[in-house]
Amino acid sequence: MKLDISTKLKMNNGVEIPLIGLGTYLSESGSIVESAVQAALDVGYRHIDTAKFYFNEESIGKAVRNSSIPRNEIFVTTKLWNSDHGYNKALIALEESLKRLDIEYIDLFLIHWPVENLRNETWKALEEVYKEGMCRAIGVSNYTINHLKELLEICEIKPTVNQVEFHPFLYQKELMEFCQNNDIILEGYSPFAKGQRINDPKLTTVAEKYDKTNAQIIVRWHLQHNVVVIPKSSKKQRIAENSDVYDFSIAEEDMDYLDSLNENFRCTWDPTNVQ
Ligand SMILES: NC(=O)c1ccc[n+]([C@@H]2O[C@H](COP(=O)([O-])OP(=O)(O)OC[C@H]3O[C@@H](n4cnc5c(N)ncnc54)[C@H](OP(=O)(O)O)[C@@H]3O)[C@@H](O)[C@H]2O)c1
């Protein structure tokens, strides 16, 4: 399949999610994140990832409303924070996110973290708001295979997406395959390991071969794995660079090489031992 910036994947409820999106964690509320969203929309991104925890939902909503692009062409994800677990709190959390965003509906509402004891009750609330049409899809984040198995046992509505840390230095192959075999889209966050591994010389050897930057190689690697990718930048030039990945493809032997860079390196929280 030939990929371009408008390529989407169909989720298990029929709704489509753009394969590339803009990450916004630490993109400061106000003019910084508003300009980042505008810059992303200008070069063709149609997917923005935020969360209550990022404290920038108002600004993102404002940028989406102020853009000349119709609301139904932009895919907005937000997430329920850890202190909002439990049935009633989760219902309120969705309403409050929607109020802050002020964009009629949320495209994808995720449980940010699989909080012990409460996550299944929270999921019931997400099923409710989905049925009421307040969001077009519901999903999870930072779920391991065990968390997903547990959820698949109790759910009435399957999660559409699992958003997890994913990059060549944390190539979660087993989790990716579990998701893909269960018709759950794997979405990778921190593709550049928050910038910590972006200059790794092992990436540079591949990047030089294709006359691309390390960042572009990483993004393209996600796309070729059918993994949704949400690189974050608040800089216009990098937002464009990170999406300029559709004029080449990584050959199979180089995909294998990039896969082999896995070190189980995590730049953020690790859900492995969450019961
Ligand atoms: N569900 C979760 O628990 C979770 C956790 C973490 C992240 N996320 C989501 O995933 C998104 C992406 O992850 P992330 O923000 O953690 O990290 P990331 O996208 O891996 O890396 C962002 C860092 O890389 C820099 N950068 C971006 N493009 C670059 C380029 N072309 N060349 C060099 N440096 C570049 C950025 O700096 P500048 O901004 O200065 O360009 C920033 O410091 C988040 O923003 C958030 O939306 C979700």
Which key terms come to mind for this protein?
binds NADP nicotinamide-adenine-dinucleotide phosphate; alpha/beta; 10 strands; 275 residues; TIM Barrel; 10 helices
Write a structural description.
By secondary structure, the protein is α/β, with parallel strands linked by helices. It has a single domain (9-194, 226-233), classed as NADP-dependent oxidoreductase domain (TIM Barrel, Alpha-Beta Barrel), CATH 3.20.20.100. 39% of the residues lie in helices and 15% in strands. The protein contains ten helices and ten strands. It has helices spanning 31-43, 57-66, 87-101, 119-131, 145-154, 173-181, 201-210, 214-224, 236-243, 252-259, and strands spanning 8-10, 16-18, 22-23, 47-49, 75-80, 106-111, 135-141, 161-165, 185-189, 228-229. The strands form two sheets. An eight-stranded parallel beta sheet has the order 3-4-5-6-7-8-9-10. Strands 1-2 form a two-stranded antiparallel ribbon. Residues 23-25, 49, 112, 141-142, 163, 189-195, 198, 215, 230-235, 238, 241-242, 268 line the site of NADP nicotinamide-adenine-dinucleotide phosphate.
